Amino acid sequence: QVQLVESGGGSVQAGGSLRLSCVSDGWNYAWCAMGWYRQAPGEERKFISSQSRDGITKYVDSVKGRFTMSQEDDKPTVSLQMNNLSSEDAATYYCVQFTRAFGGGCREDIWGQGTLVTVLS
């Protein structure tokens, strides 16, 4: 059973930076992408970024230019560098591993336990 282990959350002053990491404990031969989501209290979990196994990266508009996702070469190990953080970025951040589905597609499959990011104003 593959598990994702996140680290790097914590408290930071507004305008500061944090770097989150996600390591896959185990191997999923059908993994096709990695991603980050976040969930603020009382809100739904929302997409932040993803990176396919061949390196195509996507970001939600609100973090473009501030967040950078990186991945070790062909490994389901990723990080998320977050700069210029604001109170709107405060949330629990989740790492997710996508798996190639039977018949095609690449879908969210394995989730980490989440790591809390607090932004102090």
Describe the overall structure:
The structure is a single chain. The protein is mainly beta and 121 residues long. The protein has no helices and eleven strands. It has strands at residues 3-7, 10-13, 18-25, 31-39, 46-52, 57-59, 67-71, 78-82, 91-100, 106-111, 115-120. The model has no long low-confidence stretch (mean pLDDT 94).
Helix-strand layout with pairing:
Elements: E1 3-7, E2 10-13, E3 18-25, E4 31-39, E5 46-52, E6 57-59, E7 67-71, E8 78-82, E9 91-100, E10 106-111, E11 115-120
Highlighted features:
mainly beta; globular; about 120 residues; seven-stranded mixed beta sheet; about 0% helix; single chain
Please provide the count of β strands: 11
Radius of gyration: 14 Å
Strand content: over 45%
Straight-line distance between termini: 40 Å
Q: How many helices in DSSP terms? A: 0
Proportion in helices: under 10%
Unreliable stretches (pLDDT < 50, length at least 5) are none
SSE order = EEEEEEEEEEE
Net shape: globular
Quick overview of this protein structure:
This protein has no helices and eleven strands. Strands 2, 4, 5, 6, 9, 10 and 11 form a seven-stranded mixed β-sheet that branches. Helix content is 0%, strand content 56%.
